[in-house]
Write a structure and sequence with these properties.
Number of helices: 8
Helix content: 40-55%
Structural class: alpha+beta
Strand content: 5-15%
Largest sheet: 4 strands, mixed
Distance between the termini: 72 Å
Shape: globular
Oligomer: single chain
Order of helices and strands: HHHEEHHEHEHH
Strand order of the largest sheet: 2-1-3-4
Radius of gyration: 27 Å
Length: about 210
């Protein structure tokens, strides 16, 4: 029969073999132990690929941003075609497109500098995507401009001024916060209607032998 002393001895043995891990190293140590436990079983989660080396900002990058800021001033201060925003799109060292904001000139709320530049660049390359391109924009992209860059598959965005630099003039940060709210509580309420009819079209689309994806 085990005695209290036997139990005490086992506890002493257990704690004497324990390792003290600093809380900053806990997650790393735990992950390593978890991977070691499952080594060779085929059931360990796949390791994430290590990101490639981060490319530093070059003098050429600064020149492209300077161009974007010049377009910013031209659009907002000199020509007054729209707000003070400018954008330049570059791929492999070549400027594919450069534009300022033209919301007021074109009476087009979507004519932000980034959107204008992306449209022009896509037309130039003859494709709806700009894989491998870099967007230099004078100001932090609004949700619409970021989404357009996302759909264009732009690889990198550099911006100069942040939303907080002009929050008293434009709603970029407010829109970002508004999009996080439930549909019914947004500044522009969103509500589903005739979902079934739209789903039928998706069913047709899925059956097409050559579906367009972008």
């Amino acid at each position: 029969m085990a005695t209290p002393k036997d139990g005490e001895a086992r506890l002493n043995s257990l704690f004497s073999s324990a390792q003290v891990v600093h809380r900053r190293s806990f997650l790393t140590t735990g992950a390593a132990a978890f991977a070691a436990t499952y080594a060779g079983t085929g059931s360990a989660p796949a390791a994430k690929a290590k990101p490639g080396p981060k490319r530093g900002v070059t003098e050429q990058d600064r020149q492209f941003m300077t161009q974007a800021i010049e377009l910013m001033r031209k659009a907002g201060v000199i020509d007054k075609t729209g707000g003070p925003f400018g954008a330049v799109i570059v791929r492999d060292g070549e400027v594919l497109a450069a534009s300022g904001n033209s919301v007021l000139r074109d009476n087009d709320p979507s004519a932000h500098a980034e959107v204008n530049a992306i449209r022009a660049a896509c037309k130039k390359v003859g494709a709806p995507n700009l894989k491998g391109a870099t967007l230099f924009t004078s100001c932090e992209p609004c949700p619409m401009c970021y989404s357009t860059a996302y759909w264009a598959r732009i690889g990198k965005i550099y911006y100069a001024a942040a939303w907080s630099d002009y929050a008293d003039l434009f709603d970029d940060s407010n829109i970002s916060q508004d999009m996080k709210r439930p549909y019914a509580r947004r500044a522009v309420p969103v509500e589903p209607l005739m979902r079934g009819d739209a789903q039928k079209v998706w069913l047709e689309y899925r059956k097409m032998p050559q579906k367009t994806r972008y």
